[in-house]
Structures are given as C-alpha cells and as structure tokens.
Amino acid sequence: MSSSDLAVGEVESHYTDMIGQFKQVWSMSGHKSIHAGYHDDHPDSEESAARNMIRELAETAEVDSTDRVLNIGCGAGDAAVWLVRERDAEVVGVDICEPLLDEAREHAFEFEADDQTSFVQDDFHELSSIDEEFDVVWGLESIEHSSDLETAVETVRRVLKDDGVAVFADNFISTSERSGRDQKRIETMNDRLRYNLTEIETIKEELTAGGFSDVEVRDISEYVLPSIKSQYRLSVATLPWYKLMTPLGIANRPKSDLVHGSYHSYKLFKKDVLGYYIVRASA
Ligand SMILES: C[S@@+](CC[C@H](N)C(=O)[O-])C[C@H]1O[C@@H](n2cnc3c(N)ncnc32)[C@H](O)[C@@H]1O
C-alpha cells in the first residue's frame, strides 16, 4: 500500500510558506490555479492551459448544474469558481491551508460565485467537517500529497452518493521499472514538494479495493509537458544560484524547493517514468 511518513502538517506549512510566491505568479498570469496546464490551444498560454485542465476534468466528471461538487485540496478556488460560472454547479472546497482558503473566499466573492461556494479547512483523509453526500469528488493535484491513499479513497467514497463519481488529475509514476537514479529523483521531488508520488497502478488498485467500479485512466502527459518544460527551463537558469545560496540562508527556501522539484519532474517526464493522468471512478 502507499502510506508514508509525510505529515499533513508539513504539507500545510509548505503551502503556507509558498503563498508569497503564488501571489507573484497569480498577479502576472491572470489565474489562481496551482496546477499544470493542459496545452491544446493555438496559440496557447499558461492561463488558457490552466483553464483547459479544469475543463478536461469537468468533462470527465460530466459536471452540470444539478451537481454538488466536493473539491479536495481546492487551493485558491480557481476550479471552484470555474465550476460555478461555467457549469452552474455548487461547490464545497476543502483544504488544509487556511491562507489559501482565504484566497479562495476572496476569489469567489470577486467573481460573484460566493452564493454557490463554501470553503472549509479539513484534511481529505478525514473530512470530519463533511456530513453530506456529493455527486462529484474532485481532486486536482491534491492526492499526490496523500500520506495514506487507502484512507483517502475510503474517505472519498464515504462522502459520495451511490451514483457519484470521483475524478482526479495528478502526477503518477508510470512504471514500476525504474533506475536507482530515477528513484532518487522521485525521492527528491517528494522531499522538496511534500509529495508522496505513487504508481498509476496503485491508485487503480486502491480505488477498486475501496469499492469503486469502472476505474478509467487517461494519460494526458503530452498535453501537460509544455507546462513541465517551461518550469524546467526556469529551473535550469536558476538552480546553480539556489544550490549556492540556499545553504547560506540567502535564498528563499520554498522557491528553492520548487526549482529543484521542477528540474527533476521534467527529467522524469522525458523518460516516461512520471506521467500526468486523469482518473475517473464510479462510486
Ligand atoms: C498543487 S496544490 C493544488 C491546488 C488546487 N487544486 C489547484 O489546482 O489550484 C495542492 C493543494 O492540496 C492541498 N492539500 C494537500 N494535502 C491536503 C490534505 N491532506 N487535505 C486537504 N488539502 C490538502 C494543499 O494545501 C494545496 O492547496
């Protein structure tokens, strides 16, 4: 099974420390997503690609105006607002990071989506604040942080209606055959980005063991690669500086983690060791 020692509190601190960095990116990019883009537009931009990813996931779950969606690891609420504005759905967002939830509430208010959204602090392994059932559970780059996938899947099933669906878009390890060097890169990514990356086969097995049926997986790595590559280019330019300055306490630690993580992510994508997948499962 796929449990690790990664503490939820560590993930929370990581995202709290990253807020300044995110705000800088959001102010330049025109969106508040914290996920890779889906590049199928010409010409494309990170902003349209970020929206495309949300659209792809919404189409996979067939979200419509009759649906109540639980967005686990909702971040700053970009997908929640999109689901209200584009699908007229109702959305409850949960996240462990309170500053991101504040951003989400502000974002929903700004785009007049506050009537159909609410945002609460909770851990998706527990969801103790959730006492209703949803049509859709939605996770966009959140379960890559799960320290215990089995419990996360059980919890997701508990809050879904019997005809509900779970959809995830995330990084997964594509193969069980990898070199020692690849494994080391995975461990560096886990360490730097507070991930617990698991194999795509593992999530399929966990969902099936957790009582889900019709588990479908779509490899969308080719559409995500431009996002991964542009992060890599930035990391190549700045990695030597961070390597030198971080031990001296001069460089920003969260930024340094992100740069290291982006570097190894691209290397693993290029070798098809890491991939990006959309997963859909029926309750
Ligand atoms: C890569 S960000 C993605 C945010 C958002 N889904 C988006 O696409 O913009 C991962 C998010 O998952 C949240 N998260 C990680 N582990 C969590 C947990 N155990 N329970 C709830 N939220 C969690 C983080 O705080 C962060 O907001």
Automatic annotation (TrEMBL):
Annotated Methyltransferase domain residues: 69-164
GO molecular function terms noted in the UniProt entry: methyltransferase activity
Keywords attached to this entry: Methyltransferase, Transferase
Pfam family, one: Methyltransf_25
GO process terms (BP): methylation
Keyword flag Glycoprotein: no
Protein's name according to its UniProt entry: Methyltransferase domain-containing protein
Organism encoding this protein: Haloarcula saliterrae
